[in-house]
Amino acid sequence: MLEVESVKRYIGPEHAAETDALLANCEQSKLKSLKFKNPTIALILSIFLGFLGIDRLYQGGPKMFLCKLAMIVLTFGTWWLADIYFNKHIVQEANYEKLLAASA
């Protein structure tokens, strides 16, 4: 069984209450098949390789990768700085959506 605290680390504190209920109602086979992305790794990728869009590839978004790469070229890097700020939250929300889908 997945540990509740380890799942909460991937989901984030804003969904802590819902995570407990979802984990209680979710089948173990579905939980074991979930592949969460690590928000810390996403943040590190965003800081060091985000200007190339590698963080978006890690999140599983090749279209966003291409858009981000184009935006970096067009805005001279300001998009990268904004994305560093939002990246961890984006990954946590994606993990929460995976948990919601698995518990449905």
TrEMBL record:
Residues 36-84 form the TM2 domain. The chain crosses the membrane at residues 40-58, 65-82. Keywords: Membrane, Transmembrane, Transmembrane helix. One of its GO terms (cellular component) is membrane. It is a multi-pass membrane protein. Pfam families: TM2. The keyword Ligase does not apply. The keyword Chloroplast does not apply. It is found in: Membrane. Its main location: membrane. This is TM2 domain-containing protein. It comes from Hominibacterium faecale.
